[in-house]
Write a structure and sequence with these properties.
CATH architecture: 3-Layer(aba) Sandwich
Number of domains: 1
Shape: globular
Number of strands: 10
Radius of gyration: 18 Å
Helix content: 25-40%
Strand content: 5-15%
Number of helices: 10
CATH topology: Arginase, Chain A
Structural class: alpha/beta
Largest sheet: 8 strands, parallel
Order of helices and strands: EEEHEHHHHEHEHEEHEHEH
Distance between the termini: 5 Å
Strand order of the largest sheet: 4-1-5-10-9-6-7-8
Length: 335
């Protein structure tokens, strides 16, 4: 199995985030990328496919904002990373507001996703890494692994949040549709709900979105990921959420994953994208499942047994000491 990454994915280096009422050290630190790369011996540098595949998913004004936000922050006389503090939660509309504070609030849904000087560079190359892995699948490979950092599944068409800026899984899935795939399934196995991916495809029937995650009644992102969210319009029935309680271990998780895979296979997709988050790990510092390193091999085996061509994309996972071995355990059955 070919494994893709790019050194520019390390360029995103915020220092702090707002968490539980305090400014704390940023959890999605660049050392995560070092751990991912260090776990694998042979890596392929991602190809640059340009902006067009990104713009097929994300609005152009949002992309322009990501490219320019930190420079605008500095021009306003600010230091450090750019943070929002005001949000248009009612009557949200596309006002022509040039002040960076207004733009940050317009395009963000939390205060834990700062924009640093080279955030755009890292997010751009994460998208290219996902595209490189998808091109490998479209070329006939049975599997590929994209080491994506920063993560992407919380990012929507025109918003960032949850450490995510560009939705790599959605960009890859849309690229597959653009290159002739009739149906694509996205199976998200991160601890947190993939709200951005769900939102992007919620009214479409050609992309199935399935997410296994912590119950949003207790865990981020709270407002999305509930079981009654099943899609709208042409997408009715093409979204499945399987929320689980804190403390879920592999015994409880396995049955839900089998249910998810049954839905995926019934959809008859041409290929499968799997945003994988190692934050389901029992010792993850910000999450509350009880999955162990050896369980990831069983998880990967179940998904690989579907027989579908599969692109794996990394998402969360904040126990840096175990991140590489957890991803390697999950990816092992696909090699």
């Amino acid at each position: 199995m070919k494994i893709f990454s790019h050194p520019n994915q390390r360029a995103h280096t915020p220092t702090h985030e707002l968490h539980n009422g305090e400014m704390v050290p940023y959890a999605e630190k660049s050392e995560r990328f070092d751990a991912l790369r260090g776990a694998f011996g042979s890596l392929i540098e991602s190809t640059d496919y340009g902006l067009d595949p990104i713009l097929a998913v994300h609005d152009a004004d949002y992309v322009e904002f990501l490219q320019s936000a930190h420079a605008a922050w500095k021009e306003a006389g600010r230091k450090g990373d750019a943070f929002p503090y005001a949000f248009p939660v009612r009557r949200r509309r596309a006002l022509d507001l040039s002040r960076i504070d207004a733009q940050l609030g317009r395009y963000a849904f939390d205060c834990g996703t700062p924009i640093a000087e080279r955030t755009w560079t890292a997010a751009y190359w994460t998208a290219q890494t996902a595209l490189s892995g998808m091109v490998e699948i479209l070329g006939g490979a049975t599997s590929s692994l994209a080491l994506c950092r920063p993560p992407g599944h919380h990012a929507g068409r025109d918003y960032m949040g949850g450490y995510c800026y560009l939705n790599a899984a959605a960009i890859a899935a849309q690229a597959a549709i653009g290159h002739g795939a009739q149906r694509v399934a996205v199976l998200d196995v991160d601890y947190h709900h993939g709200n951005g991916t769900q939102d992007i495809f919620y009214e479409r029937g050609d992309v199935l979105t399935v997410s296994l995650h912590a119950d949003p009644s207790t865990d981020y992102p709270f407002y999305w990921g509930h079981a009654d969210e099943t899609g709208d319009g042409a997408g009715q029935g093409a979204n499945l959420n399987l929320p689980m309680p804190r403390g879920t271990d592999w015994t409880g998780y396995q049955g839900q994953l089998e249910n998810a895979l049954e839905t995926v296979l019934d959809f008859k997709p041409d290929l499968l994208a799997v945003p994988f988050g190692a934050d389901t790990f029992r010792d993850d510092p910000i999450s509350h499942f009880e999955i162990d390193t050896t369980d990831y091999a069983a998880m990967g085996s179940l998904i690989a047994a579907s027989g579908l061509p599969c692109l794996i994309l990394t998402e969360g996972g904040y126990n840096i000491a175990h991140l590489g071995e957890n991803v390697k355990s999950f990816a092992g059955p696909f090699a």
